[in-house]
């Protein structure tokens, strides 16, 4: 790059002071500073864009390798399953059973994971250590009531 030392910057400043003049020099210096700042930001943006594109290319390569490995594993599992199915159908035919179960329908794969079942818990309700039956027997309040509901609950009943 350009090697600018203190002596070279002082020389450039002195020449600019003589050529431009003392009245216009601050405005020109401010303009040059803003232009240099814009140029620096543009260079930094270009560098960041190049880095992002390089990372994107690396991620694409990694994705391709992972997909290839997944395809290889899937192919090996399929060939293994086909071999097992061939062995089972060969042993079924060799036994002379004739009218047995169809191996394709008898060996359908079961789901690998259980279906989701909601736990049925009331997660908004605070659970305490005291059992609910004890609270009911002792008369402990287990539900929050609004002010109007509390007044209505404890208001004496009128007989008609």
UniProtKB/TrEMBL annotation:
Keyword Cell membrane: yes
Keyword ATP-binding: no
MF-aspect GO terms: protein transmembrane transporter activity
Topology with respect to the bilayer: Single-pass membrane protein
InterPro entries on file: TatA/B/E (IPR003369), TatB (IPR018448)
Main location: membrane
Pfam families membership: TatA_B_E
Any single Gene Ontology cellular-component annotation: TAT protein transport complex
Entry's localization field: Cell membrane; Membrane
Keywords: Cell inner membrane, Cell membrane, Membrane, Protein transport, Translocation, Transmembrane, Transmembrane helix, Transport
Any single biological process term in GO: protein transport by the Tat complex
Membership in a protein family: Belongs to the TatB family.
Subunit structure: The Tat system comprises two distinct complexes: a TatABC complex, containing multiple copies of TatA, TatB and TatC subunits, and a separate TatA complex, containing only TatA subunits. Substrates initially bind to the TatABC complex, which probably triggers association of the separate TatA complex to form the active translocon.
Function: Part of the twin-arginine translocation (Tat) system that transports large folded proteins containing a characteristic twin-arginine motif in their signal peptide across membranes. Together with TatC, TatB is part of a receptor directly interacting with Tat signal peptides. TatB may form an oligomeric binding site that transiently accommodates folded Tat precursor proteins before their translocation.
PANTHER family: SEC-INDEPENDENT PROTEIN TRANSLOCASE PROTEIN TATA, CHLOROPLASTIC
NCBIfam families hit by this protein: tatB
Protein name per Swiss-Prot or TrEMBL: Sec-independent protein translocase protein TatB
Encoding gene (name): tatB
């Amino acid at each position: 790059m350009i090697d600018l030392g203190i002596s070279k910057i002082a020389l450039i400043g002195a020449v600019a002071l003589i050529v431009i003049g003392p009245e216009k020099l601050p405005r020109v210096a401010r303009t040059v500073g803003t232009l240099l700042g814009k140029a620096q930001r543009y260079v930094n943006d270009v560098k960041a864009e190049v880095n992002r594109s390089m990372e994107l290319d690396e991620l694409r390569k990694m994705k391709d390798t992972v997909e290839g490995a997944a395809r290889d594993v899937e192919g090996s599992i399929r060939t293994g399953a086909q071999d097992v199915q061939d062995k089972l159908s060969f042993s079924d035919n060799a036994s002379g059973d004739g009218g047995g179960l169809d191996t394709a329908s008898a060996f359908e794969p079961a789901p690998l994971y259980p279906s989701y079942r909601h736990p049925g818990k009331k997660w908004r309700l605070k659970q305490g250590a005291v059992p609910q039956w004890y609270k009911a027997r002792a008369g402990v309040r287990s539900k929050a009531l609004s002010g109007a509901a509390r007044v209505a609950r404890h208001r004496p009943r009128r007989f008609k």
